[in-house]
Amino acid sequence: MITSLYRIELKDWVNIFVIIFSSLLSGILIVYVNAGVAIGLFASVVMYLYLKKIENIFLMWLLLSPLLSVDYFSFLSVANHPILTFDRVIIGALFLFILVEATMKRRTLQAMNRVEMIMIILFAIIIYSITFDTMDKISGARTFIDSFLFPFMIYLLAKNIISDEKYFNKFINVLLIVGIYLSLIGIFEGFTGRDLFAFREGLVERSGWLRINGPYKDDVSFGVNVSICLFIALYKFITGNNGEITNRRKVFYSLIFGLFVLAIFFNFYRGIWLALIVGLLVWFFIRKRGLNKLAFSIILLTVIIVPNFNKIRSTRFFGGRLTYIDTIQGRLDTFDETIYLFKENPIKGIGFTNFSKIQGSQYGIHGGSQHNTFLRFLSETGILGASVFMIFVLFLFYYGFKNYRLSRGHLNYEFSIIFLCILIIYSVTMIGLDIGFLDSVNKLFFAIVGVSLGKMKNLYQLERNEKYSYFIKR
After folding, report:
1. 253, 258, 263, 264 alpha-carbon torsion, rounded to 10°
2. Whole-number pLDDT of residue 407
3. Where are the domains of the chain?
4. How crowded is the C-beta side of 454, counted as CA atoms within 13 Å?
5. Are 440 and 69 in contact (CB under 8 A)?
6. What is the pLDDT of residues 76-126, one digit of tens each?
7. Is 290 left (phi over 0), alpha (psi -120 to 50) or beta?
8. Closest CA to 159 of 148, 173, 171
9. Are 208 and 402 in contact (CB under 8 A)?
10. How far is CA 472 from CA 49, 406, 458, 468, 469, in A?
11. What integer is the mean pLDDT of 463-472?
């Protein structure tokens, strides 16, 4: 007992010494180097001392990333390019920690799968394009690192550390909290017209509609991420309290769903609305529950809308947003231009991130995009990049359906369906938006992919055991 107390006190003294040393070092960095670097160092030390486990640090990052990942909070910037950001520091440190633990045999990493192999091939194609074809190599490299490399590292971390039920439940709870505070921020912006995170990018108005963006630098990331979190809330609603849905629970989650839907509505992206509707329909049809309620709701809406259709059609929302065709025609023109540029170099494309540069030189349009993830890969990385990316998406669906087929138990079954619905949201929105290149979307999406594919290891083991047992009995 005395020895145990002595060890605890010694450990506390070590912690105090580390904090004092890091504080002094941070003070030196503030004076002679950079205040952001000092704050980042001190925060990392404190997190390591008091969060202890890699899993806890990862969940803390997931909770705070939407708020702290903006360029304004970067620890170190060079020529207006953030070098040390919250995401890069935390994810880079965690990746190093997990490699050290694996080297010391304190943690066993899961074997590589086809998704990871395809991603590595895609990375090689993008790096080649940046090296030989990209005009602005710094900007291209940053897009690659933030939108592809770091989300892939997040995927590997989530796959290997969110393994047991305890941390999986924490992961789901963190995503629910993220969805709630994102929705509250978005609703505030929608009602007041004020941007709570207006650092460099603020709220934008397109086609006469204010697009809320929450803490993100673009409004698309907000809409897609809140839609993803809505399905996480559905999972919590269905599986909480051992699947028992009480009246109190119905009221509580009805308020949460109302927040999410209102925030997505204020986002004013028809593609995101469509993706959400398709995802919800798939969720109902796969589960084969609540179809009667869904049919009744559709009939009720039809009964309400049909007699009042002329009034609805005369509203600004119906004509100015729901059926507004000018933006659709603009997208089709952009698609034609994208295909034209692809034909100039069909094998390797015009160069990674070069599309906006070409638009700027030819039409004076800066920061333009293809509004389609598949076409962007096709035009910028050619048939090579686009085909590899398509294979990557197909493998995600392959593993998603296999996860669903192998699911054992209520919780795994429900999460496998939620994962398929999230894949559908991601895929549908890629048709009208280039979300595959958005770091804010990919960070959240790849974290969920990593957790889902990590859980499949146990399902595969169960399947092998069942086949082995059957063989022995024979």
Report:
1. 90
2. 83
3. 112-473
4. 22
5. yes
6. 666 666 777 888 888 888 888 888 888 888 888 888 889 999 999 999 999
7. left
8. 171
9. no
10. 50, 21, 21, 6, 5
11. 49
